[in-house]
Predict the structure of Dye decolorizing peroxidase/deferrochelatase/peroxidase EfeB.
Amino acid sequence: MPTEPENAQDPSHPAAAGFGRRGALLAAGAALAAGLGAAADDLARKELTGRHHPTPAAPPAEAAAPFHGPRQAGVTAPQQPATQLLAFDLPQTSAAADRQTLRTVLDALTRTLAAAASDAPSDARLQSLGTTRLTSLVGVGPGLATRLGLDVPAALADLPTFPGDRLDPARSGGDLLLQLCAADRWTLTVVAELVATAAGSAGATPRWSQSGFLPVTTPGTTPRNLFGFKDGTSNPAPAEDEQFVWGPPGAHHDGTVLVYRRIRMDVAGFAGLPADQRERTIGRRQGDGVPLTGTAEHDDPDIYAKNPDGSYVIPANAHVRLTSPRLDGGTRMLRRGYSYDDAPTDRGLLFCAFMRDPAQFTRVQNRLATRDALTPYLQHQASAVAYVLPGCAPGGSLGERLWT
Amino acid sequence: MPTEPENAQDPSHPAAAGFGRRGALLAAGAALAAGLGAAADDLARKELTGRHHPTPAAPPAEAAAPFHGPRQAGVTAPQQPATQLLAFDLPQTSAAADRQTLRTVLDALTRTLAAAASDAPSDARLQSLGTTRLTSLVGVGPGLATRLGLDVPAALADLPTFPGDRLDPARSGGDLLLQLCAADRWTLTVVAELVATAAGSAGATPRWSQSGFLPVTTPGTTPRNLFGFKDGTSNPAPAEDEQFVWGPPGAHHDGTVLVYRRIRMDVAGFAGLPADQRERTIGRRQGDGVPLTGTAEHDDPDIYAKNPDGSYVIPANAHVRLTSPRLDGGTRMLRRGYSYDDAPTDRGLLFCAFMRDPAQFTRVQNRLATRDALTPYLQHQASAVAYVLPGCAPGGSLGERLWT
């Protein structure tokens, strides 16, 4: 049994979310063998049955993350090619009645998500996939927390308005925020329907929904946004998650705060810039993600390095300068962005970042909104903040510690 | 401009680990070369560089299909998880001028698609993928063919209106129809932008665009639609393609006709039926796709088999009966459908089928529209037909044989 029971019981260990390393290696090896045999297998089937067999791509290499555990899997599980965010609102009657509704909704969501992520999902469509590879997270918004007097981190609050914001309320906020991730959009479409049915039956109302995606690339590489640049290089180290991502020891230790921004990007406009100007705008090389002051992608950008003429190598308005952890005492947020494409003129980034204190995002965004060289190519169109609840054990329910 | 002193100590500065990181990259590369797999690479990077590396799924196993050849790759290449359909219109001035515009547009599309599908795409964003695995096809609509007197199959014609059709003209038809397929939506978003730019510069106007997807499953298996049933089981055998899919010997031998229908599905409604009723509606078992009269998925459904009480085993209004090739003298169409999910209440199937003569689709759809037990759960919302052009050699252009 390729598990690491001691680590898995220790929520401060990076493996706590359920990614036994040996398990991952075994799964990768099996997938590799399957991949090598796939073409021969396909050929054999074609010859034997004499029919076209439409052939989707091979399944991904990683093992699925379990639903149950001290922390929800959707925060640190490896990113997958497809995501769907779903927001719901709860009725506003009396605090006592609404607290009961919230309990009922969270129970229903817990059952639905646990079943969908299990090796034996109850839905016939999901059964056909073998494993759904679903990871998910459920969070509560600051408005609901205040209304119902929930035990959430004191730092949980709506974001301020930033210069240039063009937020659509119908795509923003919400009492409950879910993020689903899987290997493909098909799975998410089915699970999103199950989630909507479960939440609706329990009394919640859909508020907005947003799908996103990543390029399928070699595992271990940083995914790219639609500008073609790597996005997420300077995330915290797993050991730093305890300090920057997860709550302090206490009731919120296994929770975190998700900041979501739907950012429309002028993809064609940015692509029309000369290559060197694109790279000076970001502060990294496009091809390999290396900072303009470095030699490897994960070199820290040296925002103080100067050219012989005295100018900064990484320009004063470059994106990596303004987002540099050096300007925030070394604090890092865990960015897990996805691209979206809702129409030929509506493409961009679903910025999703996890942090202990959303004030960190506010500091960075205040710098970006006024000085970032990328700003002419970006428009923030939606925003949400949520306290991502601690996980739960089998038989338990998400949100067990919300009630003071 | 940062106000921190230039010698500010950065607690996360990894200078001491710099050499180790390069060593880690070398070690990771060696591990990859030794075939130990991507997870080992990822693990090595995580442990030695101390940074989160978001990890999308592994790349698919099959080799990419080349763009150039006698036939366009998008017709019979293995289906991939992501598709995008794009329709364009051409100006209507004089036949001579419009023919020149069409030539210019087809030249531009050929260059753009060939470059995007090559091992060395010119776009910096696509370069980062290594290979895009793009497959594509370009077709011309019946209206354009008539207007410009193009040499297309005589059978190319708009479809008639079927009972129950609720077609949106803004999502239907078009002078030019493209289908792009790739391993992920990210690639398609980038390529669709390149295509739109190229077509627009040459004089075409975007008409509609539609994205779709398949579940990522084991290669060689038939993909499922959002009802959870396998879709495409009874496609022609590759040897039958010459008879049913590709044109007869002559000018159109390397072309085919694409019939596209955007079919909204009442996914939740159908899922709410009892399992046996779902299977009698389709005529196949949901889990394995086996016809109700058979023991293996690829058994031909026996539409004449009866129960002891005299009723048909496959009911009279079952979907597989009404689509049975036995009712069309054995003729089969090559179905390559994709699911779509444009909103929680707008999900369904992008029916895409290739055939020599679109009258075949008309015959089948006339049966389905009036008698299919699935009809209450379906609504046809868009429609298009296109002559999929023969392929072209390197240096050539799609549509070389359109000019009579």
Summary: Chain A touches chain B through 109 residues (CB under 8 Å).
